[in-house]
Amino acid sequence: MFAEIGNQAPNIKIFEWVQGIPTNIDKLQGNVVVLEVFQVNCPGCFLYGLPQAISLYERFKNSDVKVIGLATAFEDYDKNTLDNLKSLLTEGKVIGESYKALRQHGKLVNDDKLYYKIPFPVAMDKITKMPENISEDMVKDFIEIYFSDYKPSSEKEKGELFSKVRNYLRNKEYSAETFELYKLRGTPSSIIIDQDGILRYNFFGSEGYLEGAVKELLENR
């Protein structure tokens, strides 16, 4: 089952907690939970997503709001690694496209270090190797997630879509379990869960919406 807005939010799939005290959605009921999903090799995550999540953390850290960072990998598997996440959190070291973008914007310290620290708990998403055999159910699930609004005009068009998705999945190396469980479209993404553990918002690449959404949930309690 996939996460759906308005339903109970499933626990996130964790490979390793890298920073902070390990926790999960079911342990945080009574709080508004903000899950900031990013990739190490993601310029927009470091320029926009993470700074927004840090600002939210500082704003609400003394209230019933918990912010969690989740590093995932749905591409660039050689860069979006656990080792690079650890280097980021312990040394502030950024790599790849993130490094290039931060350098271009004058946001680096000591040539290759992030200009801010991430203060909240951070975990690595569970990344699993794709199976050799791609089942029809896997193809259907992918289409349900990422093409739910697409209505093929003919059986031929439907068959072409199935064929393209099947080939994509066959060439895909790994699966990021939380990323796919929450049907995310990319990074940065911000998942907001209310005090009863209900999934309320799922923002992709947004800026400026988090605080208003959190305030709404706190005020309507």
Model description:
- The chain is α+β, with helices and mostly antiparallel strands and 221 residues long.
- It has 2 domains: 14-128 and 177-219, Glutaredoxin (3-Layer(aba) Sandwich), CATH 3.40.30; 131-172, no CATH class.
- The protein contains 7 helices and 10 strands.
- The strands form 3 sheets. It has a 6-stranded mixed beta sheet. Strands 4-5 form a two-stranded antiparallel sheet.
- Strand 2 (32-38), helix 1 (43-60) and strand 3 (65-71) form a beta-alpha-beta unit.
- Helix 1 (43-60) crosses helix 3 and helix 4 (136-146) packs across helix 5 (155-171).
- The protein is globular, with a radius of gyration of 18 Å.
- The model has no long low-confidence stretch (mean pLDDT 93).
What are the main properties of this structure?
20% strand, 10 strands, 2 domains, two-stranded antiparallel ribbon, Glutaredoxin, 221 residues, 6-stranded mixed sheet
Q: Tell me which CATH architecture of the largest domain applies here.
A: 3-Layer(aba) Sandwich
In CATH's first tier, which class of the largest domain applies? Alpha Beta
Percentage of residues in strands: 15-25%
**Strand order in the largest sheet:** 1-6-3-2-9-10
Residue windows where pLDDT falls under 50 for at least 5 positions: none
